[in-house]
Amino acid sequence: MTGSSPPLRVAMVGNGFMGAAHSQAWRVAPRFFDLPLEPRMSVLVGRDAGRAAGAAARWGWAESSDDWRSVLDRDDVDLVDIVTPGWSHAEIAIAALEAGKHVLCEKPLANSVEEARAMADAAARAASRGVFAMVGFTYRRVPAATLARDLIAAGRIGTVRQLSVSYLQDWLVDPLAPFTWRLDKEQAGSGALGDIGAHAIDLAQYVTGRQLVSVSGTLETLVTERPVLAESHGLSGTAGVGTATVTVDDRALFTGRFDDGVLGGFEASRFSTGRKNALRFEVSGSLGALSFDLENLNALQFYDGTADPATRGFSTILVTEPEHPYMEAWWPSGHLIGYEHGFSHQVRDLVDAIARGEQPRPSFDDGLQVQRALEAVELSSQNGSAWTALAETEEYA
Ligand code: SOE
């Protein structure tokens, strides 16, 4: 516990699935990590006052509000955590940074490159005053993924030659699954591409330390009309009367060229029957390879090509040792962690960076880079999968 540390008073805007995950992290992180500032769960903001009050009571926020702007006027709020759909990120984040609040914003950063650029510019202005912004690509903080990054940076697989990254889910396989905000371009920006493909892009860039420079892609919508939503539960909900038109992709397939010439293969789909939350990568190098699957998130597969040929093969590293990233704070070796721990690690890293007066990563510039990749894939798909440079997205915006 950090009882004597100065407070970091947090307001969270949004109260859906991500609101629950972030609330848990704000509560748990200071109990397992020694943080230089003590997070206080001050205000939860939701559009519906009754729901916001209920969520605040359940998750442990001191107060609730139905007006995010009023929170920005308060002196007793230091950080705004944005867990709303993409369409509202830019407006809230820019206003919060201008009001002198640090910002944590869910991914993808925005619904367009234009919005993401405005957010990155606001973040740069704020950083010059010691106010910081971070985007929530939380899977960087799964210890096995962080370890993969460390091993690649240490040269353990030699020169990276190829990689493939996929993020596979199946919650839209049923054509009667109702229309939710994630299927509406106005609200979500894009479909599988932005919702889960954004994670794949960020993770690929983070783990390999490289940046995408051009892409060639195809987007596909497999079910174009769905029943309207009666009531939402988790990602989906119950169907009401009437239908709505799906305006985003269900599946995105693309290849991407990195700045050092490496070619990567990417897939993001919500139609991968049987795959629930399978974010996978495999990176192959001149001396070895690494392979990861979020559905088995405590494990990292490592092929050491320098080992004795008689016994070498992919081996499983159980990433639960105190020597592994973040793991010293948790349980004895072999006692597994879960999906939610990445959010606590995100809080730890954010709070540490703010206390040190340093830019937390992934920054809004990192979020802008991913947004440019998303927009380049969309442009490419509209142009018969033509290779499209990320730079072209700035002209397009
Ligand atoms: C739904 O596809 C979803 O909740 C995404 O929105 C999250 O970003 C991802 O982490 C899990 O799946």
Automatic annotation (TrEMBL):
Keyword Heme: no
Residues of the GFO/IDH/MocA-like oxidoreductase domain: 148-290
Domain Gfo/Idh/MocA-like oxidoreductase N-terminal: 8-127
Alphabetical keyword list: NAD, Oxidoreductase
InterPro entries according to UniProt: Gfo/Idh/MocA-like_OxRdtase_N, Gfo/Idh/MocA_oxidrdct_glycsds, GFO_IDH_MocA-like_dom, NAD(P)-bd_dom_sf
Any one GO MF annotation of this record: nucleotide binding
Name of the protein in question: Putative dehydrogenase
Record organism: Herbiconiux flava
Upper classification of the organism: Bacteria, Bacillati, Actinomycetota, Actinomycetes, Micrococcales
